[in-house]
Design brief:
There is one protein chain. With about 375 residues, the protein is an alpha+beta fold. Helix content is about 25%, strand content about 30%. A hairpin with a 2-residue loop joins strand 1 and strand 2. The radius of gyration is 25 Å and the shape is globular. It starts with a strand and ends with a helix. The chain binds fe (ii) ion. The site of fe (ii) ion has 4 residues, from loops. Fe (ii) ion binds next to loops.
């Protein structure tokens, strides 16, 4: 990447082509004291209200900086490196972390250990990288007093409150409004598929676990759907095209949202899975298409429920699990409440929390 000058025009040379940089694109990046608040890094002028007919009167490159005088009397000094990073047009922090596929053979997952100053530590940075690689992470020794899960979540970002409250208590109770609050087996699912937007990350914190059952289970939706794409492209296609209605209802609220079970991004790459077969309603489609859809859904369900794709482990007191609710499905085995207590607390945060924290820690530790 190279910045070149020719007759008061600035060009970006990426080795393959040479493109002129619009003078107004550069003018927007003026960052002198009058133009940019140093504390917030927010502009003190409004480029959307200005004429974009600005021209360059003089431009030089000096020791890694591009220096420009514009015709409106304003000067710019901009690091060439910064221009290069903007031209890469990608999120270099999150998108550069490659997802690691896993199934029941996953071993030696690194557990992190809570300590003082955890949230501002290099270990927190490593934890977040691991979270984006695997879609989940487990932290040991997290205090359980006074709903500490809320502190935990708010020290990474902000709790995403839902109609289940700021946090929710998972233990069997009479007259539950969700099967989570029973002692029954819960098959792999993603949470709250009926919400718009769907909560990004679920945090589950084990307070007590005295029962012999009640194992936690996780399945990587990314691994499973990529496998389906290779094995049965037709099934993958219909599941990534047909939107179904997810619905939750109780006496206070009716929540509803439509989505594909496999949601792809603009490049047709994996973005999100939703799976909660107690809550989905397939639309009325032509019979042949529905035939195809139901077979494909069954295939996906078989993969999600296969022991081959599932990891199973027991959360003990003070263990806290953070999982990507857009990628990883979770469930649990049944337990006998007569054996003792099983008490977990849960809450949600969104990706802006983990992304913002990770960018901050990268800046702090210059990684
Ligand atoms: Fe759940």
């Amino acid at each position: 990447m190279k910045i070149e000058l020719n007759k008061n025009k600035v060009f970006f040379n990426n080795g393959k082509s040479v493109e002129e940089i619009h003078p107004f694109w550069l003018r927007e990046r003026v960052d002198g004291e009058e133009y940019l608040d140093k504390g917030t890094q927010q502009r003190l002028f409004d480029p959307s209200s200005m004429s974009c007919e600005v021209t360059i009167e003089n431009a030089i490159i000096n020791e890694g900086f591009l220096e420009i005088n514009f015709n409106d009397g304003v000067n710019l000094k901009l690091a060439i490196d910064r221009i290069a990073s903007e031209f890469s047009k990608k999120d270099t922090v999150i998108k550069s972390i490659n997802k690691i596929k896993w199934d029941s053979n996953l071993e030696n997952i690194k557990n992190f250990k809570f300590n003082e100053n955890f949230f501002e530590s290099k270990e927190m940075h490593d934890l977040l990288i691991s979270f984006y690689e695997y879609g989940f992470v487990i932290i040991k020794n997290v205090p359980t007093e006074n709903n500490f899960i809320v502190n935990f979540a708010n020290s990474i970002g902000s709790v995403r409150r839902t109609n289940f409250g700021e946090h929710f208590n998972v233990r069997s109770k009479s007259d539950p409004n969700d099967l989570a609050y029973t002692s029954l087996y819960i098959s792999p699912h993603t949470d709250n598929p009926y919400r718009n937007p769907v909560p990004c990350i679920q945090i589950l914190h084990c307070i007590e676990n005295e029962v012999s059952g009640g194992f936690s289970t996780l399945v990587d939706g990314y691994t499973v759907t990529e496998h389906l794409k290779n094995q049965d492209p037709e099934a993958y296609k219909v599941l990534s095209e047909v939107k179904v209605r997810f619905k939750f209802t109780d006496k206070n609220v009716v929540l509803e949202d439509w989505s594909e079970l496999i949601h792809l991004d603009e490049n047709k790459e994996f973005k999100q899975v939703r799976f909660s077969p107690r809550l989905d309603y397939v639309p009325m489609l032509e019979k042949n298409k529905l035939d195809l859809y139901y077979k494909a859904r069954k295939k996906l369900s078989n993969l999600y429920n296969s022991e081959k794709n599932r990891i199973k482990f027991k959360l003990g007191p003070k263990d806290l699990m953070m999982m990507d609710n857009h990628r990883v499905l979770h469930g649990r085995t049944e337990f006998d409440p007569k054996e003792g207590k099983r008490f977990l607390q849960g809450c949600y945060i969104d990706f802006d929390s983990t992304e913002g924290k990770l960018r901050h820690l990268k800046r702090k530790f210059n990684i």
